[in-house]
Amino acid sequence: MKDARRGSGGWGTVRLHQGQQRGGDAKVAVGAMIRVVLVETTHPGNIGAAARAMKAMGLSRLCLVNPARFPHAEATARASGADDLLVAAEVHESLASAIAGCRLVVGASARRRRLACPELDPRQCAERAVAEAAFGEVAVVFGRERNGLTNQELDLCHHLVHIPTVPDFASLNVASAVQLVAWEIREAVLRADAPPAGVEEDDLPDAGEMERFYAHLEEVLVEIEFLDPNNPRHLMRRLRRLYNRARPDRTELNILRGILTAVQRRAK
Ligand code: SAH
How many CB atoms lie within 10 A of CB 197? Predict the structure, then answer.
């Protein structure tokens, strides 16, 4: 399905910078550059749910560090169509091996840790991950269901990402945490592809065309005696505010000019 905010649907792409991987300037899916690492996941269902969460957001690379049970029917069932990610999942014996080759490693933690690496919120984490994915591989690491990531594992991370929750219940299901971080990554990819906020590719009139419209509007309002030129008050300023908010495109402005002309014809 086509995403309304993108020119082309599908996975976001980043332009690899000169001299980087795969021989330079090729466009590579962000989804393959940002890996999700699950450390010692106990429940295979959580692995499947994480794969599903990733796939829906365009992430394709799943790395598992010593999963308790994998592959497993429950993982496949919970992946619900994202089993291609499970088939391709890499199984590692240590976190160090799972993050090998990554230029940025972010650890997801339910707890805010003292003496930990600098903390990012999920949006900052996603923006950073997407920006760095243009230069090399990135990992986001998720911990054990029961007790998260060890301090030694967090020592391998450049940053910590914490999903804000109510203060006294901060621990999300690991696949839910993957979902939220992956969604922010998707949003960051869409933002990176989209024109800056408020700028659309519409055929907008320029200032001169708008001035001619306002002059025409004022002329008609005087002609039909809605506007008293001797006591104009703030009518034109208010109308300008209205049209500035609406930002009509050229076609819409032509319609408005047409209406004004038709009113003038009747008034004569
Ligand atoms: N009791 C554990 C919670 C583990 S939840 C602890 O105190 O760490 C399993 C994993 O899900 C965590 O290691 C973390 O990677 C992720 N997670 C859960 N809640 C999170 C949150 N609020 N912010 C970031 N990651 C979270």
Answer: 7
